[in-house]
Amino acid sequence: MRRRLLAFVCLSATLASGCGLLPEGGTERRTVTVWLMKDSASQEFIDRFTEEFEREHDDLDLDIRIQEWTGIGEKVHAALEDDAADGPDVIEVGNTQVSQYVDGGGLVDLTLESMRDWGMRDWLPGLAEPGEQLSQQYGIPWYAANRVVIYRKDLFARAGIEEVPRTREEWLTATEQLDAGADQGIYLAGQDWYTLAGFIWDEGGDLAKDSGGTWRGTLDSAAALRGMDFYQQLQALGEGPVDADEEHPPQAGVFASGEVAQIVAVPGTARAIVQQNPDLEDALGFFPVPGPTAERPGAVFTGGSDLVVPKNTDHRDGAIAVVSALAGEKWNTELARTMNYVPNKTTLAKAVAGEEGVAAMAAGAAQGRATPATPEWANVEADNPIKEYMTRVLNGADPATEARRASRRITEALAVPVA
Question: Is the pLDDT of residue 15 over 60?
């Protein structure tokens, strides 16, 4: 076992205090090592959390270590296999990465705690579902972020649009009105496959499905094709490039420099827009991606993080206490307010209701989804056939033919184990 306590026997209480094992109160303190990702939480939040946690747990010290996203997969895999004394007891991981670590058998099953203590029924599905495998919960939702529509209030007003759209039909109608003269109704890059995924989910389709343990691409289903058809209609109401994604060029810059009425992006993109064009500071608004009906927003890809506990921890109880605190109502809402995130439960959306962009994001997060819960999905994103499929269709190719081609490539990629 790693992090073995110093095997040192003292012959009396006096000698024990001289060993350095027991503080004056007589309670042995243990150190719980926590890996958090860079920029997930501010230093001020970490300091406040650490101070209160240690005050409430007089037997535990926290050692919070900040990690870089680059190369984190290999580092986490190594930590799950290692018996090193200074390994992590709690790790923050991307919500779609959990399946990779579950697959190796290196995580603690936290289903009991999730059901009994943590209110798992209220968790955002886009965070909770990727953390589950075979009805066992390994990843505990921490925070979420998802796309909304960022729009120009002045351009909406100029087009005579008094209320933001709540349905897809209303969205298309409004965008057609906005797409006039030098104005683009929407800037939607042709390869923005995360946005496409939401339209596919709304239609009841998916990117891939598990059938008896075998995953296959499903872009060729009737539902997925309906999602692509809506994307094609919307994308045509602007000048987004059909052969590039939303980062090439960065859509914040396009929005800042041109007469663009809308983009689909996380609310934080607004900061980048205003930095490049301060004149837009009071002109930006936000609304959830519309759904097929007005009863609820459209489905969106949920990004964010889960918390996991390695099996090789020697401090399971301490690790669970940390997860319970970070994912609990008090500190989860504090994190959401501090960092403009969506809290991990639908019931906590009120905590961010005062900020327009985050409130729109929280409303959409209730319909959040994640990429297929298989570690091999990383193979799909490495050479993404969905992007090529979208470009071919937007250039005029037959959607059904291209969807079958892309689905075959997805199936092939999912059949190759991740190295």
Answer: no
What gap in Å lies between CA 307 and CA 321, rounded to an integer? 12
CA distance 217 to 385: 10
pLDDT > 60? residue 7: no
**Which residues does 159 contact at the CB level (< 8 Å), separation at least 6?**
174, 177, 178, 180, 261
Distance of CA 114 to the CA centre of its chain: 19
What amino acid occupies position 210? D
pLDDT digits (tens, 9 = 90+) for 233-248: 999 999 999 999 999 9
3-state secondary structure the chain: CCCCCCCCCCCCHHHHHHHCCCCCCCCCCEEEEEEEECCCCCHHHHHHHHHHHHHHCCCEEEEEEEECCCCHHHHHHHHHHCCCCCCCCEEEEEHHHHHHHHHCCCECCCHHHHHHCCCHHHECHHHHHHHEECCEECCEEEEEEECEEEEEHHHHHHCCCCCCCCEHHHHHHHHHHHCCCCCECCCCCCCCHHHHHHHHHHCCCCCEEEECCEEEECCCCHHHHHHHHHHHHHHCCCCCCCCCCCECCEHHHHHHHCCECEEEECCCHHHHHHHHCHHHCCCEEEECCCECCCCCCCCEEEEEEEEECECCCCCHHHHHHHHHHHCCHHHHHHHHHHHCCECCEHHHHHHHCCCHHHHHHHHHHCCEECCCCCCCHHHHHHCCHHHHHHHHHHCCCCHHHHHHHHHHHHHHHHCCCCC
Q: How far is CA 389 from the centre of its chain?
A: 24
Q: What is the pTM of this model?
A: 0.84
Instruction: Give one word for 113, left, alpha or beta, with left for phi > 0 and alpha for psi -120 to 50.
Output: alpha
Question: Which residues, other chains included, contact 413 with Cβ-Cβ below 8 Å and sequence gap of 6+?
Answer: 376, 379, 380, 382, 383, 385
Residue 1 has pLDDT above 90, yes or no: no
Q: What pLDDT digit, counting tens, does each position of 124-164 carry?
A: 999 999 999 989 999 999 999 999 999 999 999 999 999 99
